[in-house]
């Protein structure tokens, strides 16, 4: 069972399990979802990331105790990834890292689409020389802005700009893109590969489970 940590405070069970549901539907993995408390706007800068760290660690320990065999941090910035790996004995995956690694399996010219002013550090580091640049949807500041008709159009326009700059794949550096199912829409319109961070996390966990089955 995969334990998903949502780094935003949500009240509705369906909302909390949204990303887990995407992984279950695509990969058939059982998922247990939990969200951190007292962060209704999630993680969006250094201060809120620092606030999230002890909460993520506490949830990771709880999820391991509840029987999870792996943990996924549902945030493209991968907050507390290194710290979490130190406090549990099971594998820990970050959504952003998984998307960046998966992009490199088929591309050496990768663009990053984000709603932030900078690319998350881990994603930028993993992409290395394959990184061709980033872009942001105009007028989009939060995931609420993103999940609107105008936000979706702005995101597609930003993806087109990355393609024009030479990107042959794009990493979506915001899990809000997963919530709105943007990757498949963008792939159809742009004609290049678009990496969803949540589905990339699911792919990594699924591949690990398959490897373990073969070895046993």
Keywords:
single chain, 216 residues, alpha/beta, 4-stranded parallel beta sheet, 8 strands
Q: What does this entry look like structurally?
A:
- 51% of the residues lie in helices and 16% in strands.
- It contains 11 helices and 8 strands.
- It has helices at 13-16, 18-27, 46-65, 81-87, 95-104, 121-127, 143-146, 149-164, 176-179, 182-190, 197-215; strands at 2-6, 31-35, 70-74, 92-94, 110-113, 131-135, 169-172, 193-195.
- A 4-stranded parallel beta sheet has the order 2-1-3-4, sandwiched between helices. A 4-stranded parallel beta sheet has the order 6-5-7-8, with helices on both faces.
- α2 crosses α11 and α8 crosses α10 (182-190).
Instruction: Output the strand order for the largest sheet.
Output: 2-1-3-4
Radius of gyration: 16 Å
Mean pLDDT across the residues is 93
Detail the poorly predicted runs. Answer: none
* Proportion of residues in helical segments: 40-55%
Dominant shape: globular
Strand content: 15-25%
**Strand count, sense and closure of the main sheet?**
4 strands, parallel
Query: Helical stretch count?
Result: 11
Separation, N- and C-terminal Cα atoms: 18 Å
Helix and strand element order: EHHEHEHEHEHEHHEHHEH
Q: Which structural class matches the secondary elements?
A: alpha/beta
Q: How many β-strands, per DSSP?
A: 8
């Amino acid at each position: 069972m995969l334990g998903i940590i949502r780094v935003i405070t949500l009240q509705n069970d369906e909302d909390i399990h949204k990303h887990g549901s995407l992984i279950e539907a695509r990969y058939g993995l059982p998922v247990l979802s939990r969200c951190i408390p007292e962060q209704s706007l999630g993680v969006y800068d250094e201060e809120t990331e620092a606030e999230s760290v002890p909460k993520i660690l506490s949830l990771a320990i709880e999820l391991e105790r509840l029987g999870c065999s792996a943990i996924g941090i549902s945030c493209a910035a991968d907050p507390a990834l290194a710290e979490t790996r130190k406090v549990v004995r099971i594998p820990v995956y970050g959504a952003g890292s998984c998307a960046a690694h998966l992009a490199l399996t088929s591309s050496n010219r990768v663009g990053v689409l984000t709603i932030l002013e900078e690319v998350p550090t881990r994603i930028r580091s993993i992409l290395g020389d394959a990184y061709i640049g980033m872009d942001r949807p105009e007028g989009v500041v939060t995931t609420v802005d993103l999940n609107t008709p105008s936000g979706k159009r702005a995101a597609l326009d930003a993806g087109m700009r990355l393609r024009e700059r030479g990107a042959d794949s794009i990493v979506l550096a915001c899990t809000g893109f997963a919530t709105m199912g943007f990757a498949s829409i963008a792939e159809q319109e742009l004609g290049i590969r678009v990496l969803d961070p949540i589905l990339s996390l699911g792919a990594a966990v699924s591949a690990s489970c398959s490897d373990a089955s073969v070895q046993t």
